Amino acid sequence: MSSQDTGRTSSRSLPSPLPRPPEELATLKRVWKAPQGFRLLTAVNNNIIGVMYIGTALLFFVLAGLLALAMRTQLAVPENNLLDHDTYNQFFTVHGTAMMFLFAVPVVEAIGVYLIPAMLAARDLPFPRLSAFAFWAYFFGGLSFFASLLFDAAPDGGWFMYPPLTSYEFSPGIRADFWLLGIGFIEISAIAGAIEIVVGILRTRPPGMTLDKLPIYCWSMLIMAGMIIFGFPAVILATALLEIERAFHWPFFIAERGGDPLLWQHLFWFFGHPEVYIIFLPGAGLVSMMVPTLARYPLVGHNLVVLALVGTGVFSFGLWVHHMFTTGIPPLSLSFFSAASMAVAVPSGIQVFAWIATLGKGRVQWTVATHFLMGFLFIFVLGGLTGVMVAVVPFDWQAHDSYFIVAHLHYVLIGGMVFPLFGALYHWWPTLKNTMLSERLGRWAFWLMFIGFNVTFFPMHITGLMGMPRRVYTYPGDLGWNLLNMVSTVGAFVLALGVLIVLVDMARDVLGRVRRAADNPWNAGTLEWIPNESYAVRSIPYVTGLYPLWENPNLSREVQSGAHFLPGAPTDRRETIVTSPIESKPQYLMPMPGPHWGHFLAGLFTAAHFLCLTVQLYWISLVPAVLAIASVLWWLWGLDKGEDHPPQDVGGGWRIPVYVQGPVNHSWWAMVVLMLVDGTAFACLIFTYLFLWTVSPDVWPSGAASLPGLEWLGGGLALWVLSGLAILWASRSLGRNKHWFVRIGLLAAILLAVAGSVLEITGQIGTGLKGAESAYGAVTYMLAAWQAFHVAVLLIMIGYTLARSFCGLIYAERRVTFDNTMLFALYTVAQGLIALLLVHLFPRLFG
Amino acid sequence: MALPQRRNRRKHPLRFGWLFLAGLLLVACDGRQSAFSPNGFNAREILFTSWVLFVGGAAIFVFVMALAAYAVFARGERFPGARAWVIGGGILFPVVTLTALQVHEFGLARRLVTLGETPALTVEVTGNMWWWDVLYRLPDGEPLRSANEIVIPAGRPVELLVKAGDVIHSFWVPSLAGKMDMIPGHVNRLTLLAEKPGTYRGQCAEYCGAQHALMAFEVVVEPAERFDTWLTDQRRPVQRPLDAFLARGYDTFFSYGCQSCHAVRGTPAVSTIGPDLSGVGGRQSLGAGSFGNNVGTFAGWIASAQHLKPGNAMPSFNIMDGEDLRALSAWLESLK
């Protein structure tokens, strides 16, 4: 087609004049060119990282699925000897852990990495190297987690790892540590992903896409990211406490010394229940995108569905106790959680009926994705109904920890996430390289998976209520479970066959059996269907509605001819437009980092560090730790470029700067997100302190005699306040370009913070308090250690900031790096003050 | 809602129904450990609610699937309403049904809680890796210890105080009641009201390590008056037997140091590290609900406990003289 044509038909109000200068496209291609060969390891583009991320997650899905097949084979007949108890216990632990942490959460984030920028027509996510780093850490970490099976060192405590079974007394050795290793990586990549997603969705939308025009998948990912921000900190803290209990015997979970096994359950499920929705909401978001396309009708009740997503996110934090209905918690509080657990059915119901109504109003095209959507609806509704059943407390007393729960959780997770995921694979595959997967193989795969799934898991509802507990490696033959188990095993193999067909189909496509796809083969309405290269779309469209391609059938051509925003690379490097969070007005042109070895090495060394810790090579682990930090600093060094170009014209009359600082900057937003994560973790630590006190007030000191004197409190408070003032003074001086004052301020801030941390620990040691003695000692030192860890991070950040200051890379007009350090320093000061007041005053007031 | 049968090749509701029927047939076969065969007040009440949930759930499921099938196959113009479905089906209907369900649940929970207000008997049950320590708290005199089997009277509420000796376990006898976790540092309460005499099997429901699968037990429900006799019998001390062969077994017990872990009432063996063996010959099973109980299984268990239940605390006494082993097994089997 000729760009002349397009120009004539629709140039009246398009942002960029046509025709575009011919060298523009060449520049765009050159700056976004992907590295080739082994340098692919340095790649950062979301298209590349997203695909590798999805592929790795699918690999772990297959591996964990093979373990499930082995388990089903063992359980096919009673008193089977195929797997011994030890192997079986490792298998189900690794299966559950890998499915939840190495497949489900990563894959939904991976799809986000791949799809979100495309749906927003952004050139990349705002922190490409962070995504790539998270991917590599996850890749190496996940592989070493699975490798533990080969060395008979895999964890065997179940995927929720209840202490005391998993603490040092009953799980000596390193098996449990491998679990903590596996989950450590997902903590890193989940937080990194959440930052990317929040900042990406709120700040890199195309002009015109006000929040009410945000595609519903992006809504689901935004809420999912919010749940990661407030949910993951609980498990980060819980795993830290368990690892410390295992390493130093600090009794957080040991009842004899004032700890409580239930503390783990509260922290774990406060994360663990939102976790289920962290997995399901993106699946629901994918469904809400596919349904309108396949029904050729806009989503009915769009706003209600957005509300339902928000509602699910909020409710999901009030449900965690429904995993603990049988722990002896008083009936009154149980009924609150029972009601909340039922209430969460409402937002799910809204979505189900919105999908059905959309399908009803539209004219359905029967693709493979449609099949998977219908299968999803069948399975998910059934899983939702059994979910309401287990929310009834007395019913749960029977169903809990039986195969009924195994059935329920697979119905909601496989139904809620895996079926939409496979549908999405077929649906969005053409966006990858313009080829189609086989509709014929896809249908075979669907029917095998659908029938196999129901044959496997439906009987388990009955098996469970007939008394079969979960996690048993064998069972007697006279309890009536034999036939049901055999049926489940047969079903599992049928399900696996279906998955295999999908893998074969994808392999055929990758290996060159190519079926060309039309542009936008399903005639979808959203931006990811605009033809797309390594630089994403040629120009960033002006968006006027929820389904831009339906509203303006010419949009794709306009975009491809460069008639919209940012049709080139005006500063001759990777860049994208940052827009305002609500109105989506262009604010500045963000330069984006390109390929680099730093983030790859950082991921590799982070994995090596954790692996060394796991196999108890504590001193050696320092080497990769230092190398990982050095790699991160190396990758960061070239980033904060300052205003090195004049404001650029991005079209539509917008001339925007290439550098802004302060609260408008995207990295300020990322810091705020990180501080929300950090603050939530700290709040969980305070909860831990108070929870342990309510459980065992007897191990708390009575009266002031055994506490450090008030002078320790006063000294500590003074140090923290002074540290905060020092950083503020440095900030003021930076505004006036008084560089020596800045440096002195930074130095003073970190020295005072180190002194504050040392003072607190010394004061506690002075009273003779021991961490291993009681839960009080453990949590008191934990608060001090938590603060000391923050000071250590601050030390690195301030060192880096000082180095940049000495190199002349920080001044009044280029202070983003300084601002990030300042935010973290102020956070650390606030946290230090709260911790001090709690530790010193609480025992005095309530002791 | 009229289903366009001709084009509906999917037949989901039908498959659902078949599996359900198949399940029900199986349920009828065996009820020693099944929530479908209640023999206690608790389990019976829960089963009634379960059927309410199953039938209601099935009706909703069939309706939603039929609606979805209609939505997919009918023409858009003929599909009535749009947002009305979202508000009616997604908000109003669940709010009304779930509120009703909550009211029903409150009623059930109250009935179950009030059951335990005046127990006729209190039994402490402690979960250990991987066996059950049982202590009858008797109003008159010292408590009676047993293991891996709980004998209770029919028709009288029995209060169980469940605890853990090492890691978390969960006490579950599906035919009598829902489960209750046993958590270190906590004492949880569960009331059983068994209706009919019989033997019901229970099993640990919370994963507790290597042999979680082999941590079962029996609850033997006796008619109330037989229970009282049983209790009196159990409290009699065990004497060194007069029969020479059984006496050899008695002596073997002590010469191999069995008393360092086990207790037999009335003898010098008083340790509570392992299961109390005072009435062990009268119990239904060995190895915490794992094997049948006869002289042969006794011998097998003593000689190769590590092979039968790897990792449990009982060593394999495979060096024992054959005749000693037979005598010891016979003596233990005689302890009723």
CATH fold topology of the largest domain in chain B = Immunoglobulin-like
Sheet-strand content of chain B, in percent, reads: 15-25%
Helix content of chain A: 55-70%
For this structure, the quaternary state is: heterodimer
- Main sheet record of chain B: 5 strands, mixed
CATH architecture of one domain in chain A: Up-down Bundle
Secondary structure tally: strands of chain B: 12
**In CATH's first tier, which class of one domain in chain A applies?**
Mainly Alpha
Mean pLDDT of chain A: 94
CATH class of the largest domain in chain B: Mainly Beta
Shape of chain B: elongated
Order of helices and strands of chain A: HHHHHHHHHHHHHHHHHHHEEHHEEHHHHH
Strand portion of chain A: under 5%
Low-confidence runs of at least 5 consecutive residues of chain B: 1-14
User: Could you tell me the mean pLDDT of chain B?
Assistant: 90
Compute the number of helices of chain A: 26
Q: Roughly how much helix do the residues of chain B carry, as a percent range?
A: 25-40%
SSE blueprint and pairings:
The complex is a heterodimer of chains A (847) and B (336).
Chain A: H1 3-10, H2 22-31, H3 46-75, H4 85-120, H5 128-150, H6 175-203, H7 216-248, H8 261-295, H9 302-315, H10 331-343, H11 345-361, H12 368-391, H13 393-399, H14 403-428, H15 430-433, H16 439-465, H17 482-510, H18 548-551, H19 555-560, E1 575-579, E2 586-591, H20 598-614, H21 622-637, E3 648-651, E4 654-656, H22 666-695, H23 710-735, H24 739-766, H25 775-806, H26 816-846
Antiparallel strand pairs in A: 1-2, 3-4
Chain B: H1 12-27, H2 41-73, H3 83-115, E1 121-128, E2 131-137, E3 144-147, E4 149-153, E5 158-164, E6 169-171, E7 180-182, E8 188-192, E9 198-203, E10 216-222, H4 224-234, H5 244-255, E11 285-286, E12 291-292, H6 295-308, H7 322-334
Parallel strand pairs in B: 1-5, 4-10
Antiparallel strand pairs in B: 1-2, 2-3, 5-8, 6-7, 9-10, 11-12
Helix pairs in contact in B: 2-3, 5-7, 6-7
